[in-house]
Write a structure and sequence with these properties.
By secondary structure, the protein is an alpha/beta fold. It has helices spanning 11-19, 22-36, 80-92, 112-124, 138-147, 163-166, 172-184, 201-212, 233-240, 248-261, 278-286, 306-316; strands at residues 41-51, 97-102, 128-132, 151-153, 188-190, 193-195, 220-225, 266-269, 291-294, 319-320. It binds S-adenosylmethionine (SAM), 6-(5-methyl-2-OXO-imidazolidin-4-yl)-hexanoic acid (DTB) and iron/sulfur cluster.
Length: 331
């Protein structure tokens, strides 16, 4: 039986889920998963960085922040035609959702015609569209909705207590306001965060609590494992203190707790798969993860790649989830 989503989770309840014996937790998450989703179908999206690097925000994990000395070279916003070429390639590889990521604090008004054009034309190619471009104004959210944007990704990144250790130039309240605008504009919300940034279990409880107590849960919840990037404060911290690295079992626990507390959402096993074993990924799918990013690149970091994912899907007997057919409007 489908589980009705609840928004009244307490931190104690979430902490108690995390504390369950591992097999008990995964079993419960798998039960919730099966009751609410096709258990062996995983949705695959392709990411494209449409504007890379030079971002004024100081996110401590990010290769694209101008505050961090990384090897990433800043680029301008890509031409619409180039974006469409990449989308066509992704569609030919079987991807059904195309996610466009821009390293913006927020899009400028002069960027909006190109962004809405990208959404309109990728959508016209028959793919679902997703965008992540930083904070939006209410009017920008409406412009993207009108262009046909299906999802907007905007992560809370971590729990409220750890947030300021991760970014100081944008507050959690700023992030939540953009999420409100996206929701009000009728765009599906994609919102999650990163584990393995040196946060404690208690911080992770706060992170899931923040998402699971939203009045309406995000339709898509990306759970990223930190990809440590040289030259970023959090990546370098991890390189210096390998013990701070997230334990894979704790990562799977986070996926399972997200699945139980947000039963109807798609839980996305996002960044970090590149360094995860097939068995850990299989445990994540068992614990309720049902979407991934495919392709050999995320935004700037390497990703598993289509052929290795095809092989993984074959080994695990997973199918790619097709989007719901679009309703055809009556004449
Ligand atoms: N600038 C936009 C923003 O911050 O919303 C969009 C792009 S940003 C790169 C999208 C998300 O990717 C971030 O919110 C963060 O959760 C995730 N991310 C970025 N760098 C990462 C890393 N090194 N490891 C894991 N996740 C990362
Ligand atoms: C999300 O939560 N993960 C994706 C997507 N949203 C845009 C991005 C992951 C970025 C990983 C690091 C990089 O490629 O630079
Ligand atoms: Fe900019 Fe987004 Fe990277 Fe933060 S996560 S530095 S906002 S691109």
């Amino acid at each position: 039986m489908k589980t009705a989503p609840r928004s009244d989770w307490t931190r104690e309840e979430i902490a108690a889920l995390y504390d369950l014996p591992f097999t008990e937790l995964v079993f419960r998450a798998a039960e919730v998963h099966r009751a609410n989703h096709q258990p062996n179908a995983v949705q695959r999206s392709t990411l494209l960085s449409i504007k890379t690097g030079g971002c004024p925000e100081d996110c401590g994990y990010c290769s694209q922040s101008a505050h961090n000395e990384t090897e990433v070279k800043a680029t301008k916003l890509m031409e619409v035609q180039q974006v469409l070429q990449s989308a066509a390639q992704a569609r030919d590889m079987g991807s059904t959702r195309f996610c466009m990521g821009a390293a913006f604090r927020n899009p400028k008004e002069r960027d909006m015609p190109a962004l809405t054009d990208m959404v309109r034309q990728v959508k016209a190619m028959g793919m679902e569209t997703c965008m992540t471009a930083g904070m939006l104004s209410e009017s920008q959210a409406h412009q993207l909705a009108e262009a046909g944007l299906d999802y907007y990704n905007h992560n809370v990144d971590t729990g409220p207590e750890y947030y300021e250790r991760v970014a100081t130039t944008r507050s959690l309240a700023d992030r939540l306001l953009t999420l409100d605008y996206v929701r009000e504009a009728g765009i599906n919300v994609c919102c999650g965060g990163i584990v393995g940034m040196g946060e404690t279990r208690e911080d992770r409880v706060g992170f899931v609590h923040l998402l699971a107590t939203m009045e309406q849960h995000p339709e898509s919840v990306p759970v990223n494992a930190l990809v440590p990037v040289k030259g970023t404060p959090l990546g370098d911290m991890l390189a210096d203190t390998p013990l701070a690295q997230i334990d894979e079992i704790e990562f799977v626990r986070t996926v399972a707790v997200a699945r139980i507390t947000m039963p109807a959402s798609m839980v996305r096993l996002s960044a970090g798969r590149e360094s995860m074993s097939a068995s850990t990924q299989a445990l994540c799918f068992l614990a309720g993860a049902n979407s991934i990013f495919s392709g050999d690149k995320l935004l700037t970091a390497p990703n598993a790649g289509d052929s290795s994912d095809d092989a993984l899907f074959q080994r695990l007997g997973l199918q790619s989830l097709e989007p719901e057919p679009q309703a055809v409007a009556a004449e």
